[in-house]
Amino acid sequence: MAGRIEQRLKELGITLPVPAAPIANYVPYVVTGKLVVISGQIPLRDGAVAYAGKVGEAVSAEEGKAAARLCFVNLLAQLKAAAGDLDQVKRVVRLGGFIAAPPSFTQHAAVMNGASDVAVEVFGEAGRHARSTIGVPSLPADAAVEVEGMFELA
User: Which sequence ranges are marked TM in the entry (predicted)?
Assistant: First the structure.
């Protein structure tokens, strides 16, 4: 029987992928006490980067927002692996967003809302979180966006 959060994902049409393996010398997540810290996730779909390039150039701001949303879905896949059951998630504590963009781009916050919005769609009030969003010159695998997260477990 699916839990409350699994049911919510189904209602939203979200299917969690197999969690991506790290591409360098790090682990995908660390559980310490009641916190789960998840390494940055890029917008992978079926093992390939779905949104590549700089937001504001090759990638539109709307596509960047979709990339951030996909990054959060990939965070959820890691979170499920860490927690075993997404119903164990008490709160989304913090998200960090990295947006590959040219220096003139200023819509970082709107792009990162793609991840923040789905956090609230999935977890309701427990999905409201602290957040940092920064622009960077490039990201691994030429990803347009990367999102990291911290979650509290029950």
Answer: none
* Helix axes 61-83 and 108-123, enclosed angle (nearest 10): 40
Q: How far apart are CA 74 and CA 139, in angstroms?
A: 16
Under CATH, what is the fold of the domain 4-14+28-153?
A: 60s Ribosomal Protein L30; Chain: A; (3.30.1330)
Cα gap 117→124, rounded to integer Å: 10
Residue 23 carries which side chain, given as an amino acid letter? I
Per-residue pLDDT of the chain (154 residues; tens, 9 = 90+): 569 999 999 999 999 999 999 989 999 999 999 999 999 999 999 999 999 999 999 999 999 999 999 999 999 999 999 999 999 999 999 999 999 999 999 999 999 999 999 999 999 999 999 999 999 999 999 999 999 999 999 9
Question: Are the CB atoms for 150 and 38 separated by under 8 Å?
Answer: yes
